Fold this sequence. Notes:
This protein has helices spanning 44-56, 68-75, 112-121, 137-146, 154-161, 163-173, 223-236, 296-306, 339-347, 351-359, 437-450; strands spanning 34-39, 60-65, 86-88, 102-106, 128-131, 183-186, 204-208, 218-220, 242-246, 251-260, 264-274, 282-287, 311-321, 324-331, 375-382, 387-391, 396-400, 403-409, 416-417, 426-434, 454-455. It is of the alpha+beta class. A 9-stranded antiparallel sheet has the order 14-13-10-11-12-15-20-18-17, with helices on both faces. A 5-stranded mixed sheet has the order 3-4-2-1-5, sandwiched between helices. Helix 3 (112-121) crosses helix 4, helix 4 (137-146) runs antiparallel to helix 5 (154-161) and helix 5 packs across helix 6.
Amino acid sequence: MNENDLDAASRPFSSPALRGSSAAPTAPAPRPPRLHLLALNPTDSVTEGFLPAAARLGLAVTLLTDQPEAHERAYGRREGKAGSARPFPAPRGFPARGFPALDIVPCDVRDFAEVISRIAADGTRPRAVFTNSDHLQAQAALAAQYFGLPGKDWRAALRTKNKAELRRALAAAGPDVADPVWSAELATGQDPATLAGLDAPYPCVVKPREGVASEDVVLVADADELVRRCAEIRERRPGAALVVEEFLDGELRTLETLGDGRTLHVLGAFRTELSPPPHFIEERLHLLPAPPPQPHTDQVLAQLRALGVGFGVCHTEYVVQGDRARLIEINYRAIGDQCDLVLAELLGIPLFEYILRTHMGEPLPDDLGARTDGRVRMEYVTADRAGRLASAPPASVTERDGVRLDYRPLRGIGEEHPLHRTNRDFLGVLRATGTDQGRIDAAVARFLAAHRWEIV
C-alpha cells in the first residue's frame, strides 16, 4: 500500500490480473488535480488552514519553498533523495484524510521566473497557483497568469505590497476616494542623511517599504531621530528602501474581505490594540459586531477597488478619524496570527476552501451563510525582554459560561530569544470565543491572572 494514497485504506484489496485470467485489467486511477502553493517559512494559516482545505477539496499539493527543511520538520520528515520532491504524510495531530498528498519542492520562490520554470518542470498542469505569503503575492499572480489560471492582478499585488506605491496609487485615486496621507520614500541605497531637511509632519512613522509584522516600524519625534532610526534600520537591512509617512492617530481597525473578481464579501472586522509608541506591536484584537461599522467599511471597499483589489482574500488595516477611514496598509492575504483560523470557526463557513476555490476559478455564492452572533478576543502574551523562557503554561482548551478558551504556546520552555519588538516576541496566543463580550473579557482576565510567563 502506498502510504501517501490517502484513500487506499478505505478500498478493498485487489490483486493484479493473473496470466490467463479473463478479468479485464484495471485502469489506472486518475491523478487528483494539483495545487501549487508558494511559501517561505511554515505558518499556522497554511498548516492548519489551507493544507487541510486542499485535502477536503481533493487536491494534491506541490509546495514550492526556499525553506524545504523547515517544512519537512513541520510536516514530518520522510526519506528521499536530497533536493527532490518528496510526498509527506499528515503531521502529528492530523487524521490521514485531513491532510493532502504533499510534495515539498525546493525553489527560489521570490523569483517569479524560477517559480514558473519549476511548475512547468513538474509535468502536471496546475489546477491553481496560490500563496498566503505577504512576500510572494506578485510572484504567484504572475505564475497563475502565465499558466492561464485565475489569480490576482499582479499589479494590484505589487502596489499593495510596496507601501510607497500604495500611497502614490491612493493619491492618484483622488480625495473623493481616499484622504491624502503625507509620505516620502528613501530609495534603495539612498543615504538616510538626505532626510535631515525633510519637511515632515512630526511625529511621523518610518517603516521598510516592503516590511511586514511591524518589523522596524517606529515613531520618530524629529529630524535627528528620523535620520538615526533610518540608519539603524539600514544596519539590519542593508540598502533597504524605507517609507516615511504621516502618523495616523486613532482607533486601529481591520477589514477582512473575500472576492472572486465579481463579488466582494466582507467577512468581518477587528479592533486592534497596540503597544505604546514608539513601536507598534499588536497586543489584542476584538471582533467587531456584524455588520461592520459604517461609513468606514464602504470607504475602505472603495479604496480597495481603486487599487484593483477584489480577488481572493485580503486583510486591510485602517485608522478611524471621525467619519473617515484612513488606510495604514493592505496585506493581500488572510489575516494571520491565528485570527483566520478563529474567524473560519466563528463564521461557521468553509473559509479556506472558499479562498482556494476562487483560485480554481469557481464563483463565490452570493451569500456565504456566515454566522453573525459570534465574538472573539485574541490575546497575545508578549515578551518584554530578551532571554530564556523559564516557565509558561502548557496548551489548553477549556469551556465555561459559554466561553471557549484555547491557549497555544508559541515559544517552548528553554528557548532563548532576543527582543524583536514584533510579533516574533509572542510567547503564546489565547483565543477566546463566544457570543457575550463581557464574559469573554472576564474569562481572559481570569486566565491571565492564573498563569505566569517567566523570562530569565
